[in-house]
Amino acid sequence: MPGGRLTQQERQQIALGLADGLAYAEIARRLDRPTSTITREVMRNGGPTAYRADLAHRATERRAHRRRQTAPRTPGTAPQPHGRDAEAVREYEETFTTVLMASGMPKMMSRVMACLSLTDEGSLTASELAQRLQVSPASISKAIAFLESQAFVRRERDERRRERYVVDDDVWYQSMMASARSIAQVVEIARQGVGVLGPGTPAGARLENIARFLDFVSESTARAAEQAREILYTKLGTASDGAA
Predict the structure, then answer these.
(1) Which residues form the Transposase IS30-like HTH domain (predicted)?
(2) Among 4, 19, 126, 134, which residue's beta carbon has the most beta carbons within 10 A?
């Protein structure tokens, strides 16, 4: 059955599928479930290499119990624009958050990033984020500080002088460039270490290898990001002009 919660038997099938190296889409097809359901299930329960059916089932039961204990703070579900299915949007936001967490982003930062990314406006105030995510303003402030440091979001003032947090269309370009700059700093420090430890020593040679590898990665990342933005943004602009 496509709807409803996953059963323990389905989780065992997911574990077997992962062990066999099957893609999420193939596991979903065999279980007659949406791929997003399988992705969310796996990523929130240890990822593809650590997923265990029994542990995942118990964790889901604990989460369901906690949800029953804490009644919703706001009645009902807010209506969605453009005729979207509110439950599907909620599930997708949860999946998006889980995948961001699996990439290394902390949980609250992932929740804020997903929440901002899924708004049509691409921006929310701190109070709007706190209300949507049901967390404290302090949690939002901490998450925004992290996301700003990684070039995922920026701040701006609206007509009412309220501070808004914005995700731009080129957010991933900006983040990739910030990552390339961070890697370049590691390269510089590694090469300083070569001079301190001596280029002919094992430790010095190790640091030189680190510097060479990361230097190549940093330059390749920046070059690929620049090329992708130029090509993809040009295509998007041409398509928009043609539609007009």
Answers:
(1) 5-45
(2) 126
Q: Which residue has the tokens 């680190």?
A: 210
- Annotate 140-155 with DSSP letters as a single string: HHHHHHHHHHTTS-EE
Q: Is the pTM of this model over 0.90?
A: no
Determine contact, residues 101/143, Cβ cutoff 8 Å.
no
- Cα distances (angstroms) measured from residue 47 to each of 8, 22, 44, 101, 185: 17, 14, 7, 10, 31
Read off the pLDDT of residues 120-164 as tens digits, 9 standing for 90 and up. 999 999 999 999 999 999 999 999 999 998 889 999 988 888 899
Question: Which residue ranges of the chain lie beneath pLDDT 70?
Answer: 1-3, 63-79, 234-244
- CA dist 37 and 92 (Å) reads 9
Which H or E element spans position 93? helix 86-102
If you search the block for the tokens 């599907």, which residue do you land on?
88
Tokens of 163: 């501070």
Burial class (CB in 10 A: 0-12, 13-18, 19+), 131: middle
